[in-house]
Every structure is written in structure tokens, then in C-alpha cells.
Amino acid sequence: MWWAALLNSIVSVLDSGGAGGGGSSYESIATATGTGSSGTITFSSIPSTYKSLQIRSLVNTNAGANAYLMLQVNGDTGTNYANHGLHGDGTTASAYGNASDTKITQNLIFNSSTSFGVQIIDIVDYASTTKNKTVKTVSGDDLNGSGRIYLNSGLWINTAAITSITLYSTSGSFTTTSTFALYGIKG
Amino acid sequence: MATTYEPIATTTLGSAAATITFSSIPSTYTDLRLVWTVRSTAGSNFPTVRFNNDSGSNYSWIRVYGDGTSAASQANTSRSGIGILWLTEVSSAADTFNLLTLDVFSYAGSTYKTSLTTASADKNGSGTVERAVALWQSTSAINRIDLTASSSTFAAGTTATLYGIKNA
Q1: What's the average model confidence in pLDDT over A106-113?
Q2: Among B4, B103, B137, which would you mutate to test the A interface (most chain A Cβ atoms within 10 Å of its Cβ)?
Q3: What are the strands of the beta sheet with B145-148, ordered from one edge?
């Protein structure tokens, strides 16, 4: 019947989010900005409805010295993390590994008022309750004469779903120009 | 809901060309992502990326790379563009294109622009994988990106797509 087909097509358009097409598979969940008085950023109450998470961040500190950016999940400060990394400083390619650690090292944030450390952090199957969680990070900082590029993998040895992610600096506070954006990717 | 990750423009070369340009880039996103599959019409092609048609000595980058035998790191300072990877030639590894990505953070902001690049080139016996962090020393918003061959041209079939990523 023609009217049934018409109604079905209208419902289909409404379900897809409008005449412009289907809903997005890559969604912004939350954004945080540095305050200048804290070296910690936490994304909490992360919904379990995505397949993967991605954090894209642009970071600087007021430490007056280089500082490391670290990652923890679900408030876990125990020795439940492992980490491997490859980095280059423009002269030497180096590799490192840490076992039974209290955090996952991301990258060195260089002391600079004009350039920023940047990170793309990916966690697939973050909401799984049967898998330990693997974190992949590409990050770096370039100051036109110094800096580093990093490729890191990290492991959180816990099968609990990730509901919060904390990024913190080992020194100083995140500047007000630092931004951290959490995205969810649907499977 | 506003689209968080969407294509801004895409180009596929029907014939060889020396430059691919994305212009009039809107300032409404947070980050830009360029995904580029490319090969060269001849050897010794080390393409560069420039922003806003700036060819001054305002670019630098640090890369770590491996070639199947060893890993190394290299820095370049005060250059006229961001250099990315030696490209596979059309005369070798038939139908094989290199995969390059460029992520530009806060491209419309008022601070210097930092990017992350990845480059992958494998020819089944030779090749290179590379990761780099790059800096453009300009506080201007990026409204144009040029991909330019250092020598020869980009081969037909080369495709470049620019995406915009918008945070909450």
C-alpha cells in the first residue's frame, strides 16, 4: 500500500538523524581545558556504548622545565600497567619498556611558551569485561631544534571496563591553552 | 548532532601533477586530518607540506623511522616546508601507493601549529615506516595546505582527502 511505504520512508529518515544522512560513528564525548593550577585532567563517567575511544590533546605546562605526561585509568594507582615505547630525538632512535608500573608513560612535554606537546591516544575495546586494555599513543613535541617523536603501547592489566581516564603531568600544571578532547568511535 | 569527523575535500589525480592544494579551509573545526595515498612518477621524490602558501624557513620536524634493517631518528630545522618520506616510484612495486597521514592540532588557533605525521611505504623487500612531529612557526589560522613534489610529479591515482574533526 502506497501510504505504508510513505510512512516507512519518513520513519527511516527520522531514524537516520534527518535528511542529511545517518548518525556519526565518531562522536565527541567531552573536552577539557587546562586551568593553570592543576596538572591533572580526568574524563569520568565514560559511557560504555562505543567500540573505541580516542583522546586528541595539545599540552603545555607551567613547570618551567620538561615534564612527562602520564596516563592512568579508573583511578588505579597500583602496579597494574606495562608500557613499551619507541622514540626519536632527531639524533637517536631509542626503545624502552616498563613492567609492573603505576602508570603508562605518554611523552615528554618540553618546556616552551610557544610550542605544544600533542597526543593521539587510542583504546580499542575499552568497555570489554573480558580483555585487559591496550593503549596506543602517537605523540611528540617539536621546538625547531629540540623535541621528540613517540610511538607508545601501554597495557592496563585489568578486565574491567574503563570508565575514567586520567592524564597528569609529572611537574607543573597544564596551561590554560592546553586542550584534551575525548571521542567515542562506534563499531 | 553536529558531525564530529567529516570530509572537507578530496582530490584524486586523473593525470600526474606536481602539487595538490586544499584552499579556503573553514575555521570551524578543532583539528585537521589529511589522509593521502600517493606514488611518484620518478625517483627521489620527497614531498613537502606547506601551510598558507608559506615558503619561508618556518618549519621543522623530528622523525623516527625504520627501513627493515635499522631504526634511526632525524631532525630538520628552519626549513621551507615539512618533508615526508621518499615516495615509491611507478617504475617499482606495481600498483603500490604509499600511505601518509597528517594530523594538525588546533589549526585555527592563535599559537604555533604542531602536527603529527605517519608515512608507510612497503615494496615487499624494501620500504620505510616513519612517524614524525612537526612545527609551523606561525600563529595564523591555517586556511590552505599545499602538498608539493620535490622532484618529478605525483602519479595518477594519487588521492588526498582532508577531514575536519570537531570537539565538544
Answers
A1: 92
A2: B4
A3: B19-22, B145-148, B48-51, B82-83
